[in-house]
């Protein structure tokens, strides 16, 4: 007869192991395994530090899924919403550069850090590619298709002193402008300069 021993519970492990497990949980989203907001913030700080030695701009994106996850969770259950979030994460990862960092900021928002850009225009191209990819239908349970209407706010640091918090705040402000004006992508180049509209919102068919 085959006997399977139960794995020890987290509480029965040594304190250091428990601490490591909780630390990992705080750095990674439990559904997608993408970096959490905390780890994303740390990656941005490192990118800005490297930016002081190189000439490439650093771009941060906040990708808003327009409440799609919340709506699916309310209508079809949290399990379906989690499955959809995993699909979204995988699709976005395929659309960004290998050196980019994709993060899960909340149930309805993702973040992206691009620190190997040749120009700010490259960030715009990536953002538009991400928005377009989310319009391609996702297949939910019972073969139900779902297309997403996303908005992206981008903040670019071209070399001036700036913290990760400030860069994220500017990306969030650009996102608010995109949603308010019904645009897909909005980019803010430097602190104090007005946001630049990049692409107009297109309705999901």
Task: Summarize, please.
The chain has 205 residues and is of the alpha+beta class.
Describe this structure as you would to a colleague.
- This protein has 205 residues and is α+β, with helices and mostly antiparallel strands.
- Helix content is 43%, strand content 20%.
- It is built from 6 helices and 8 strands, in the order ααβααββαβββαββ.
- A 6-stranded mixed beta sheet has the order 2-3-1-6-7-8, sandwiched between helices. Strands 4-5 form a two-stranded antiparallel ribbon.
- A hairpin with a 5-residue loop joins strand 4 (138-139) and strand 5.
- Helix 3 runs antiparallel to helix 4.
- The longest helix has 18 residues, at 78-95.
- It is globular and about 50 Å long.
- The protein starts with 14 loop residues before the first helix and ends in a 5-residue tail after the last strand.
Question: What topology does this entry show?
Answer:
Elements: H1 15-27, H2 37-51, E1 58-64, H3 68-76, H4 78-95, E2 101-106, E3 109-114, H5 120-135, E4 138-139, E5 145-146, E6 151-157, H6 164-181, E7 183-188, E8 196-200
Helix pairs in contact: 2-6, 3-4, 4-5
Number of helices: 6
What class do helices, strands and sheet pairing give? alpha+beta
Q: Tell me about the biggest sheet?
A: 6 strands, mixed
The helix-strand sequence is HHEHHEEHEEEHEE
| Shape descriptor | globular
Unreliable residue runs: 1-23, 192-197, 199-205
Work out the radius of gyration.
Answer: 19 Å
Taking all residues together, what is the mean pLDDT? Answer: 80
- Strand order, main sheet: write it out: 2-3-1-6-7-8
Bin the strand percentage.
Answer: 15-25%
Termini separation (Å)?
A: 57 Å
Count of DSSP E strands? Answer: 8
Percent of residues in helices comes to 40-55%
